Amino acid sequence: MSSTVDRLTDLFTTRVREIVPPLFGAAGEPVRPLISLAYGLADPALFPRAELIAAATQVLAYEAAESLNYAMSYPGLTDQIVARLQAEGVDAQPEQVLVGYGSGQILALLPEIFVEPGDIVIIEGPSFLGAVKRFVQSGARLITVPVDEHGMNVTVLADVLRRLAAEGRRPKFIYTIPTFHNPTGVTLSLDRRRQLVALAAEYGVPVVEDDAYIDLRFSGEPLPSLAALDQAGWVIRVGTYSKILAPGLRIGWVHARREIIDRLLMVKAEGTTGPFITRVVARYCADGRLERHITELRRHYAAKCHVMVSAVQRHFPAEAHFVRPEGGFFIWVTLPSGVSAQTLLTAARSRGAEFLPGSACFAEPGQGDNAIRLAFSFQSSERIEQGIAAIGAAFGDL
Ligand SMILES: Cc1ncc(COP(=O)(O)O)c(C=O)c1O
């Protein structure tokens, strides 16, 4: 007689049978007491706690009836998102915006409306697997386009699209993180942005632009988002308050053609998103406060990025290579030839630090063992320095 667990497992769909261990414990802290440079958590020192308490108190005092009942998301937050998009040069309208529980929810819903088993989705290699795994669960067949120091290689993308078109196949969408890419930190050049938007229109393939980090620029000139360059409506722009305010608020959004928003609403089971929390966020962000907060974040993350870059230069072997990011949360280090990220990780952990091995950022098994992702967002400058020194010493152990 098989066990209850076995009999229960037989009932699960194939897409949820394999259990992947969670990255974080219940409280959101990394599970092990190491200096973890693995995850892109926000810096808790930067949460505007007093202002959020004030905003929440005001919502409870003045808007309790609307915010604590079954109700719509607060339209005032949508208006703020539209205003920010318009300032960026996007011809945005409120009916083209849907607020969700984090951009992660939006990225999980997009395959629900586009992907049938066997459909093609084009992704970057490496990429943010949190999203890519949702595409796979919907049955997508992935085609990976490489990323270099200027972002996604659009020449390769053009070849892929041409070949597929010749076979009579049209991918369901292209998923890209053009600005301060997760995990590599690189930014898609202006030329490539133009080419990507043109390819989307030529081949009739939507581009999912996940610009989670776009506001966290600390050097270089801002580039137009793909959504701002898009005249034909093929760009689906996904954004989040996680990196510019607090991930625990779980507020993200999507801007896209009305036809797409309407279908996302059909699959968003709970319908609306947090009438209470959308009001708190909107109250906090009003009167230019969000933009002032972002200025502060940029300064702070720039300093931590600088600490990490300088520590890597001092502690890692000279053959370890990285592109200095102009914003975001991450540095991607290509290891000296012959060094395996997985082996380095074991040595680093025994010295008290950890990172994300590159293989965790590729959809195909066997890729990425020559690279690591280091997050400078969460740890203090002192612990970044200690963590990088520990990983540097781990190179010596190999
Ligand atoms: C590129 C990218 N997109 C989306 C997300 C998810 O963010 P959210 O907290 O809005 O779900 C992350 C989080 O790390 C990310 O790095």
Automatic annotation (TrEMBL):
<dbReference type="InterPro" id="IPR015424">
    <property type="entry name" value="PyrdxlP-dep_Trfase"/>
</dbReference>
<dbReference type="InterPro" id="IPR015422">
    <property type="entry name" value="PyrdxlP-dep_Trfase_small"/>
</dbReference>
<dbReference type="GO" id="GO:0008483">
    <property type="term" value="F:transaminase activity"/>
</dbReference>
<keyword id="KW-0808">Transferase</keyword>
<dbReference type="GO" id="GO:0030170">
    <property type="term" value="F:pyridoxal phosphate binding"/>
</dbReference>
<keyword id="KW-0663">Pyridoxal phosphate</keyword>
<protein>
    <submittedName>
        <fullName>Transcriptional regulator, GntR family</fullName>
    </submittedName>
</protein>
<dbReference type="InterPro" id="IPR004839">
    <property type="entry name" value="Aminotransferase_I/II_large"/>
</dbReference>
<feature type="domain" description="Aminotransferase class I/classII large">
    <location>
        <begin position="75"/>
        <end position="390"/>
    </location>
</feature>
<dbReference type="GO" id="GO:1901605">
    <property type="term" value="P:alpha-amino acid metabolic process"/>
</dbReference>
<keyword id="KW-0032">Aminotransferase</keyword>
<dbReference type="Pfam" id="PF00155">
    <property type="entry name" value="Aminotran_1_2"/>
</dbReference>
<comment type="similarity">
    <text>Belongs to the class-I pyridoxal-phosphate-dependent aminotransferase family.</text>
</comment>
<comment type="subunit">
    <text>Homodimer.</text>
</comment>
<dbReference type="InterPro" id="IPR015421">
    <property type="entry name" value="PyrdxlP-dep_Trfase_major"/>
</dbReference>
<dbReference type="InterPro" id="IPR050859">
    <property type="entry name" value="Class-I_PLP-dep_aminotransf"/>
</dbReference>
